[in-house]
User: Fold these one by one.
Assistant:
Number 1:
Amino acid sequence: MPRTTTVVIGAGHSGLAMSRHLADRSIDHVVLERGEVASSWRTKRWNSLRLLTPNWMTRLPGYAYRGDDPDGYLTAPQVANLIGDYAKQSAAPVLTGTAVAAVRPAADGYVVRTDQGTWEAPTVVLASGACTLPVVPASAADVPRELTCLTADEYRNPAALPDPGVLVVGASSSGVQIAEELQRSGRAVTLAVGEHVRLPRTYRDRDILWWMDASGLLDEPYDEVDDLVRVRNLPSMQLAGTPGRTVDLNALQGLGVRLVGRLAGIRDGVAQFAGSLPNVCALADLKMARLLDAIDVWALSAGMDDGDVQRFSPTHLPEPAPLSIDLRSREIGTIVWATGMRPDWSWVDAPVLDRKGRLVHHGGVTESPGLYAMGLPFLRRRKSSLIDGAAADAADLSAHLAAHLAGRAGPRRWTA
C-alpha cells in the first residue's frame, strides 16, 4: 500500500495551489484526479462561457497572467489549458484517471481508497470542488415528460435545444448568461428569478472586481462575518465575462426576456411562480447600492475620488409578472435548471458531515485532525471560490497542516 504525507484530492486550481505550497514546504504528497487536470472546465461548461474574473485576477501561487489582454476574460478551454500548464510548470505530482472511492480515518491518519489502489497518509486535503453535482428542485419530477430538461452544466449551445421557448430557472451568473444567449439566438426565453446578487460589470471606468479587490472586500475573512452560513450559500454574482457590458435583469428585458418569480412548484403540468419578484429585485438593488456606497467611501479615503459617482436604474419589473405557465401548452419546450451546484461528499467516511451531508469546517480545518478542505465558498475569505483566492487559502492551510504534522497545530477553530 503506497504511503505519502499528504493526499490532495482534486487537480483543479485549488488542489494545484495546495500542491505548490506543500512542495514549497518540502511536504511529500500526491494529487489524485478522477479525470484529467481541470476536467470540469473541459467537460461541464457551455461553449460560450467565459471566466467571471478579468485576466489580471487569474493568479495562482508562483503564477500571474502575462498575456496581452489583462482586462479580458478567459474562455473555458483557455482556463483548462492554463490550469493544465500550471500543473506542468509546478511539477505537481498528479495521478490522473484515479477516482477516490472513500476516505476513512485510520490509526495514524487516513486511508484513501481509489479505483487504482489504496493510499495511506497522515493528512488529506479535500479539493474536489464546490460544483460537482447540480442542484435541481424536487419539482423537476413533475415536469411533463414531453419537455426537454437539462442542468446548466449539461447545456452547451442554443442549437442543441428543441425549437419552442425556454424556461431558465435561476438568475445568478449561469442563468443570466444562458438566458441572454438563448434570447439572442431567437428563442423566446422566460427567466424565473429568485434571490440574486446584482452587480454592474463596470463601475467608475473600472471592472467592479477591481474595486472589490483593491478595497479589500474580497479579502474579508470568514471569522469576521455576521452570518457565515448565509454568506456561504449566497448565489453567485450576476455577472458575465464581457468587457464593459452588464448583463442584469434590465438588460435581459431589453432583449425581450420575460421575467417571472421564483419557481414555487409544478402541479398538473402548470408551473407556479412566487409573487415575491418585486421584493427580491428591490433587495438586490439595495445591496448593490450599499456596495457602491462602500466603494465610494474607500475611493475617497484612498485619494481616488474624482467625483464621478455612478448609480444605476432600479430593476424594472413587468406589471404584473405571470404567476403560472401551463407547461403542456407547447409555449415552453425546454427547461434549463440554472439552480446551482454543490459538492459531493458521499465518499468521505469521516465524522465531518452534518445531518444533511454538508462538510463542517472552520476555515477549511475540519474536526477530524489532519483533514482539510479547499475551494469552497467563503472558505477563509470572500474570494475563496475564485481562482484568485486559492493562493492565500492554500498558504494558510498548508501552514496549519505543517504545524499538525509537527504536533503543534492548535485548536480546530483556527485563524492564520
Note: DSSP finds nine helices and 24 strands in the chain.
Number 2:
Amino acid sequence: MKNIVILISGGGSNMAAIVRASRQQSWAAQVPARVVAVISNKASAGGLAWAQGEGIATQALDHKAFASREAFDAELVRTIDAYQPALVVLAGFMRILTPGFVAHYQGRLVNIHPSLLPAFPGLHTHQRAIDAGCQVAGATVHQVTTELDVGPILAQGVVPVLPGDTADTLAARVLVQEHEIYPRAVLQLLRSLP
C-alpha cells in the first residue's frame, strides 16, 4: 500500500477530489494507495474538517509558531514522515517550501498550479491570462523543484477564456479541470514510483 500525505491551507477541494478518486475501484486496480493524512499550516482550514469526516488523520501545524521558514519545514518533514508517504501532494498549500524540504521529497512532491505553465507562474494567474488576451487558460500538475512553478509538467487541463470572463468566472472553470487532472496525475506518478 502506497501512502499519500496531502498538504492544504484552505478548503481542500483538490484534496477531496484526490481522496474520492483514490477510493474508486478503477484506481485500486492500478495501484494500491490511500490518503493517510491531511496536514495544514492553518488550524481553521476547512479541508481539515472534511478529511476528519472521511476518517483521515489530520494535523495542523501553524507556521507562525516557528522562528524561521527552515524551522517550520523541519517540523513539517518530521510530521509528514511519521506517515511514511510514497507521495506528498500540495493541494492549495500556500507556503513556499525551503530547498531542504524539496530535496527531502525529490521526485515524490507534486503541486497543481492554476495556469498553463510555463505561462503565469506565481499569483493572480487568471487575471493575468485575461489581461494578456489569452484564448485559453488552464491548470498544470507539476513536480516541485526549488524554483517556483517550474518543475517537470505531469498533466495540463485547458479551458477557453470567454468574452466577459472575470478572474472569478475563469477560476471556477479552471477548478473543474483541476479536479479532473490532479487525481489522474497523482495516480500516474504513483504507478511510476517503486
Note: The beta strands are 2-8, 33-40, 57-60, 87-90, 109-113, 136-143, 153-160.
